[in-house]
Amino acid sequence: MKLSELQKKDIVSIRDGKKIGRIVDVEFDVKSGYMIHFVIEKAHFVRSLFSQTEELNIKFTQIKKLGEDVILIDIS
User: Buried-most residue among 22, 38, 70, 75 (CB within 10 A)?
Assistant: First the structure.
């Protein structure tokens, strides 16, 4: 799957079903070449209620399911 395909999917919390945002970037470790995390642009509702930060980082291990339209994540 390409990053451009992942960027089209909504990121949804598996705990409460709320839309978190969308993938805008990926960060890699320069030395190892491994992906560190996805950078998520928070949905406007999530951003205004919980913090002023517009981005959230999620690790690949937090992804629970890649669906056709959504990516389900578990963030505690």
Answer: 38
